[in-house]
């Protein structure tokens, strides 16, 4: 029994010593070497405060990750009583938008409700539902006011937003920095965005993601995560908060100007996301 105890203690001490001797910043910098494009990364362990950053304050396109600020905008309206979570709505073909999602295949005059739009927007990254949610939230202008009130200087909705036509041409639907978007998700996790109840609802929605073959695939399936993915030809990015046994950690991996614009599973950015996600899990959890 004594020998077993000593062996276990030695393993734990080695694991602790290893985690303390490895520099996370250096590991990440080595991981992005050779990537054919621009990379931004922000990592924060919520309990220890340990962080690492690579171009974390550089503006990147959000692609579909802009749907997190849109979600905040809708929840703000619900909190104020201007919308209801189960509010009945009627789908019209006039709002159909292509790309990702299921709502574009709805039959005209289909009855639905706001909760369905919000779920489709986050879980399946539904573009039609997201644009509808953006309008219901008061438009990009109102959502950007909320982002400003949260102290987010660069996180903005650009598409269909007055005065942002030129910047839309540069960044697309939305823009952010790795540090700011991670900060927004941490605020949601802590119940600080809109209200504890609103934050809880948003976190539940972000914990139910269809696109689990990228960064999420490197995290054990029994571990809860809240996330959002954003993907267009030259920009593939992911936002993830992991409810890990040794404490929550958040990371944002942003890319732009990517040379590899294929939509295959071995796309260079997808591989980078998987590697970094696995690296962070091993670093913080010492598992595998």
Automatic annotation (TrEMBL):
It holds the Pfam family Beta-lactamase2. GO terms for molecular function: hydrolase activity. This is Serine hydrolase. Residues 40-255 form the Beta-lactamase class A catalytic domain. It catalyses: a beta-lactam + H2O = a substituted beta-amino acid. Keywords: Hydrolase. SUPFAM superfamilies: beta-lactamase/transpeptidase-like. The keyword Hydrolase applies.
């Amino acid at each position: 029994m004594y020998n077993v105890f000593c062996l276990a203690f030695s393993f734990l001490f080695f694991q602790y010593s290893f985690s303390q001797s490895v520099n996370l910043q250096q590991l990440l910098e080595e991981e992005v070497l050779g990537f054919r494009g621009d990379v931004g990364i922000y990592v924060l362990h919520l309990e220890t405060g340990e962080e690492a950053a690579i171009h974390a304050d550089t503006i990147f396109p959000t692609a579909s990750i802009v749907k997190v600020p849109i979600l905040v905008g809708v929840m703000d309206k619900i909190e104020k009583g201007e919308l209801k979570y189960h509010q009945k709505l009627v789908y019209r073909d006039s709002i159909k938008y292509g790309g990702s999602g299921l709502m574009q295949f709805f039959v005209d005059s289909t009855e639905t409700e706001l909760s369905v739009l919000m779920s489709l927007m986050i879980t399946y990254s539904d573009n039609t539902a997201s644009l509808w949610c953006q309008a219901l939230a008061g438009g990009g202008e109102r959502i950007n006011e909320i982002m400003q009130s949260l102290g987010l200087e660069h996180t903005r909705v650009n598409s269909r937003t007055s005065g942002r036509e030129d910047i839309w041409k540069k960044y697309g639907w939305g823009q952010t920095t790795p540090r700011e978007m991670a900060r927004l998700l941490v605020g949601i996790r802590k119940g600080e965005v809109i209200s504890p109840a609103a934050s809880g609802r948003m976190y539940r929605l972000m914990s139910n993601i269809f696109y689990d073959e990228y960064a999420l695939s490197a995290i054990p399936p029994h571990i809860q995560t809240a996330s959002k993915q954003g993907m267009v030809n030259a920009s593939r990015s992911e936002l993830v908060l992991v409810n890990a046994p040794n404490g929550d950690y958040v990371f944002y991996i942003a890319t732009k100007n990517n040379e590899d614009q294929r939509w295959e599973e071995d796309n260079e950015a997808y591989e980078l996301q998987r590697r970094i996600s696995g690296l962070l899990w091993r670093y913080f959890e010492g598992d595998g």
